[in-house]
Design a protein that fits this description.
The N and C termini lie far apart (about 25 Å). The chain has strands at about 1-5, 35, 45-50, 55-65, 65-75, 80. By secondary structure, it is an all-beta fold. The protein has one domain (about 1-80).
């Protein structure tokens, strides 16, 4: 994998953990929008997978006693501001 960029805003030290949803989606729903100002997208770095040729968003989920690295496919058509 190759690092491409980030969705993080360097001017914000502590990005919000608030989520943005449309039509009752969850952030892990297949139809969830990618709202770059909201969690988890505001904490993502973008990577290019050399194997599948897709762009991927990577972030870390911190919850309870677990720290989980997460990956989501970046689908340009789902990005909203």
């Amino acid at each position: 994998m190759t690092a491409v960029g980030t969705l993080r805003d360097p001017a914000i030290d502590e990005p919000t953990l608030e989520e943005f949803h449309l039509q009752g989606s969850r952030y892990d729903s297949p139809n969830a929008p990618i709202a770059t100002a909201f969690f988890p997208y505001n904490q993502c770095d973008v990577w290019h997978c050399n194997r599948c040729e897709r762009q991927l968003m990577r972030y870390t989920e911190f919850g309870g006693y677990n720290v989980d690295p997460r990956v989501r496919v970046l689908e340009v058509g789902k990005i909203i501001d």
